[in-house]
Amino acid sequence: MTDFRLPELGENVTSGDVLRVLVKPGDTVAKDQPILELETDKATIEVPSTVAGQVKEVKVKAGDKVKVGQAILILDNGGAPAAKTESKAAEPEKPAAAPEKTAEPPKPAAAAPPPAQASASKPAPATANVVDFSRGSRPAPEPAPSIPDLPLAPAAPSVRRMARELGVDIDQVPGSGPSGRISVEDVKAHAKRLVTGAGTADANSGAVPAAAEPLPDFSRWGEIERQPMRAVRRKTAEHLSVAWATIPHVTQHEYCDVTGLEELRKRYAKQAEAAGGNLTITAIAVKVIAAALKVFPQFNSSIDMAAEEIIVKKYVNIGIAVDTDRGLLVPVIRDADAKNIIEISVELSQLSEKARSRKLSLEEMQGGTFSISNLGGIGGSFFTPIINTPEVAILGISRARLEPVYDKENGQFVPRLMLPLSLSYDHRVIDGADGIRFLRWVVEAFEQPFLLALQG
Amino acid sequence: MASQQLIVVGGGPGGYAAAFLAADLGLSTTLIDPEVNPGGVCVYRGCIPSKALLHVAKLIGEARQAKAWGVEFGEPKVDLARLRAFKDDVVKRLTSGTGQLVRHRKVQYIQGTAELVDAHTLRVRKASGGEDTLTFEHAILATGSLPAIPPMLKVDDPRVMDSTSALDLPDVPKSLLVVGGGYIGLELGSVYATLGSAVTVVEMTPGLLPGADRDLVDVLARRVNGMMKAVLLNTRVTQMKAEARGVRVTFEGEGVKDQAREQLFDRVLVSVGRRPNSKIPGLDRTKVRVNDRGFIVVDKQLRTEEPSIFAIGDVVGEPMLAHKASHEGRVAVEAIAGQNVAFEPRAIPAVVFTDPEIAWAGLTETQAVKEGRKVSIAKFPWGASGRAITLDRTDGITKLILDAASEQILGVGLVGPGAGELIAEGVLAIEMGANATDLKLSIHPHPTLTETMMESAEVFFGQATHVYRPRR
Predict the structure, then answer these.
(1) What is the residue extent of each domain of chain B?
(2) Which of A273, A376, B226, B401 is deepest in the core (most CB within 10 A)?
C-alpha cells in the first residue's frame, strides 16, 4: 500500500480546489496518468500520478481544497493486475515507449498488451471516461454504442448546405484541406464521382471521367498539337458526360410529312421577316413542342433521385442548341407556350445572333425545360441527341428531303417532303409507349397544324 | 378574403423572422399575433425586458464594487416607476420597429388569435372584433411557450408570480423566494437581489442550471451564494399558502433544517420551466401530431405530419430559445419556397445573463462524458487574462471541447462578464469546422476577453503564453 500525495505543483502554489477526480476505486493507474483536475489561483492543472498501482481509496472529492502533501489516493501496488486492455486508447505507434513509463512489476501473462493509459500522451481518454462526482453516485458512464465517435464533418455551413442541395452526404465527402477540411470543390468532385460511379478514390482531382483513362503518346505516330480546352468546350464535356452517364437514354425516330407545312411556311415567311424573324422549321418546332408538353407533362419534368420525387414544371421554356464558333450554346425561349410562331421566330433570331456575337447572358441560358437540336441545316437523317440534363427529353431534327411515299388511295408512289425527327428521352421517367405517343403527337401536329389550336 | 401563400401563426422572433423572409422571397404572407406588433414573449415579456433590468442591476453592482477602486457613490436610490418606464420604453421601441418592418415588407398583419379549420383554412378572431376566414397554401405554427406552473405551486394570489408578472416589477419585496434555479430564476432573482430583496433560491436538483457544465456553474454559484440570502439545493417546495403576512412555503430536502421547513416570503417567483403552447384550437382537424411532452412533431425541414403545415420555435422542442426559433423559421420558409434545406445546426448558443454570464455552444463537457465521447478539454482561466484583471473580474473560464484526434472544436463553454458576446466566436468556429490551430493562428485584439478564446486553443497545445503547464 502506498499513498499518493499532492506533489509540488510549481512556485508559490501550495493548494487548490479539486475540480474533478479522474480515477475511482478499483481503477489501475499508471505513473504519469492524470489523477485530479485542480484549480489553483494561477491555473487549472491536471495532476499526474507519481506512482502506479490499483486504487483502493480516493480520499478527496470535487470541491475539496487540497494542500501540497495531502493524501489523495491510497494505492495497492503489490498485486497490481495487468492494466485492462483499452483497445480504443491503444495507439499503435506508442507501445515501445509504454513499458518503461509504467513502473509496474513484470506481468504474469506472457503476451500482456501494453497498458494503454500510460501510452496516451494526451489527457483525452481519461477526461472523457471519468466519473463526474459532482453529479452524484452514478455508475461510470458506458459509452453509448448508438452515438458514433466520429467528429463532425469539418465543413462550413455554406458547404454543408450545398452538399444537401446536391444530394451528397457531407460525412462521405473526403476533404482536401488541412485536417480534412471539406471545400465546395470537394463536394462538387464527390458529387461528380457519385453520378459517374467512379467510387471515392482520387479525392483531390476534379477531373471529368472522360479523362480517367491514361492517354498514349500520340506524337509517336505523327505530329500533334495540344490546344487548351475553352470554357464552353470544357463545360459541354462535363455536362454531357454527366448526362450520358446518369440518364438511361432511349432515342425514338420517326418521319414526319411536312409537304403541307412547307407550303404554309413559304406563304407566311414574309410576315415573319417583316417582324424581324425567320420562319424556320425550328421556330415552328418550338411551338409544336410547347403544345406537346402541355399534353404530356412528364416530358416537362426533372428527377430528384435524392428526394425520390419527380419535379413537374408548370412553365414551358424551350432551349435551342445553337452552333457558334465557341462551341455549343443553348439559349432558352421562355414561356414558349404563351407565344405565337412569329414571336418565337423573332426571339429565336435575336437569341441566335446574341449567341454568335457572345452577348448571351447566363440567365438567357438557364431555366430550360426541354431542348431542341436542329442539324437539318447541315444535313443528315436521324441522330441520337443527348438529353440536356436535368431535362428529361430532347428533340433532334435532321434535313427534310423528298421521298417517294406510297399513296394507297391512288395506288402509286408520290413525292412527299419528309422530315426525320429523333426524340431522346429519359427512360427513368418516360416509358417507351409514352415516348412514341409523344413523338406521334409531334409528327401529327407538324402534319396537321390545326392540332396546335385544337389540343395544344 | 384572398388565399395567401403563407400564414404564420405567432409573431415572436421565430414567427416574424419567417414572415419577413417569406415576404422577401416574394410570397404573399400573413402574420397573426395577439399583440399590436410582432415581438412575442421574447420582446414583450422575456429576453428583452429582463436584459434591460439586468443592465441596471449590473450598473448597481459595479457601482458598489467601485468602492474598492477608490470611487464611492453611496447607496443607490431606486425610482421604481422610472425603472419600469425605461424597461417599457425599450420594449416599445423594439416592437414599433418590428411593426414598421411589417409595413415596409407589405406583410399582412392581423392582431388576433387563430383557429385551424382544416389543412388549408384558418379562422382569425380579430382583436378589433369580428372574424375572418383565410385560406393558405402553407402555414407555419410559431405559437411559442408559456410558463409552466405545477399544480402544487398554483396559488391564486398576486404575490405568487411567474416570469411575466415578475418583470412587471410591482415592488421590491423584502423577501423573495425563487422556485427553480434555472436561467429565468437566476436572472430575475439577481435583479431583485440587487434592488434590495433578500432572495432565496430553491432548486430540486443538486446544482443550479441543470444541464450546464459544473465547472462553469461553480463560478456563478460562488457569486450567487454571496448575493442571495440562501440557495437551497436538492430541495423541493411541497406546499405554498397565501396568508395575510405573506406566502407560507413548506420545503423538503437537503437544503433545509427542521426550523427552516416553513418560511414566510413577501413574494414568490415560480420559474420551474416553460411548456410548449401547442393547444392551438382546431389542431385536431389536421394531421398535425403533438407528442406526449406537448411538442408538435416536425421533421428536419420543420414540416408537421400535415404537409401544408410547418411548426417552429418553442412549440417544436428544446432548447426554447429565440435565436433557435428564428433560424428554424427561416429554414421552414426556404423549405416552403422549394429549397432543399434542413435545420441542422452544429451549435445553438445558450446564454445565461447573470453576473457573471454563462454561455455555451455545441457539445458540452457534461454531454461528452455522458456519451462516452473521446474529447480533449482545453481551459483558460481568466486570472491569466490582462483584460479580466483590468475589470477586476478574474473569476471567468474559457473552455474548448475538442475532438482529441482531429483537434476540431466541438464545443465552447464560457463563464465571466461578457460571456454572452464571446460565445459567438465559438459558434462560428464550430459551424465552420475550425480546429484548435485555426483559433490559435487567428490574431485576437489585445487587451480583450476574446484573447481567452485564442489562448484556450494554445492551452490545447500546452503552449499558452499566459498559462504555464508543467510537463508530464
Answers:
(1) 4-147+275-336, 151-272, 350-460
(2) B401
pLDDT band at A184 (very low <50, low <70, confident <90, very high): confident
Residue A76: pLDDT band with limits 50, 70, 90 = confident
Interface contact A50, partner B, CB < 8 A: no
State pLDDT tens for residues B394-408.
Answer: 999 999 999 988 889
Interchain pair B368, A128: CB under 8 A: yes
Candidate from B372, B408, B468 with C-beta closest to A128? B372
For chain A, say whether B225 makes contact (Cβ under 8 Å): no
Yes or no, beta carbons of A160 and B344 under 8 Å apart:
yes
Q: Residue A219 to residues A209, A229, B63: CA-CA distances in angstroms? A: 23, 19, 86
Q: How far apart are CA B192 and CA B211, in angstroms?
A: 24
Q: Which residues of B touch A124 (CB under 8 A)?
A: 374-376, 404
Same fold: B4-147+275-336 with B350-460 = no
What topology is assigned to A2-134 in CATH? Answer: OB fold (Dihydrolipoamide Acetyltransferase, E2P) (2.40.50)
The architecture that CATH gives domain A248-454 is 2-Layer Sandwich (3.30)
Task: Identify which of B372, B376, B467 has the shortest CB distance to residue A123.
Answer: B376
Asked if B384 lies within 8 A of A123 by C-beta distance, the reply is no
User: Is B446 an active-site residue?
Assistant: yes
C-alpha–C-alpha distance, residues A37 and B463, integer Å: 18
pLDDT range class, residue A134, cuts 50, 70, 90: very low
Q: Could you tell me the pTM of the whole model? A: 0.61
Which fold is adopted by the domain B4-147+275-336? FAD/NAD(P)-binding domain (3.50.50)
Alpha carbons A4 and A56: distance in angstroms, whole number: 11
Q: How far A35 CA lies from chain B's nearest CA (Å)?
A: 12
Out of A134, A143, A151, the one facing B406 most closely (by C-beta) is: A151
Catalytic residue among B323, B444, B446, B466: B446
- All residues at 6 or more sequence positions from B143 whose CB lies less than 8 Å from its CB, including other chains: B9, B10, B277, B278, B280, B313, B315
The CATH T-level fold of domain B151-272 is FAD/NAD(P)-binding domain (3.50.50)
Please calculate the CA angle A420-A422-A427 and round it to the nearest 5 degrees: 160
Q: Are B4 and B313 in contact (CB under 8 A)?
A: no
Identify the CA nearest to B200 among candidates B190, B210, B209: B190
3-class secondary-structure state, position B167 = helix
pLDDT tens, A88-108? 444 444 444 444 444 444 444
Assembly ipTM: 0.72
Average pLDDT, chain A: 78
Closest-CA residue of A relative to B381 is: A43
Inter-chain CB proximity A152 and B408 less than 8 Å: yes
Hey, is the C-beta of B383 within 8 angstroms of any chain A C-beta? yes
How does DSSP assign B75-136, residue by residue?
Answer: SPPP-HHHHHHHHHHHHHHHHHHHHHHHHHTT-EEEEEEEEEEETTEEEEEETTS-EEEEEE
CA distance B381 to chain A (A): 6
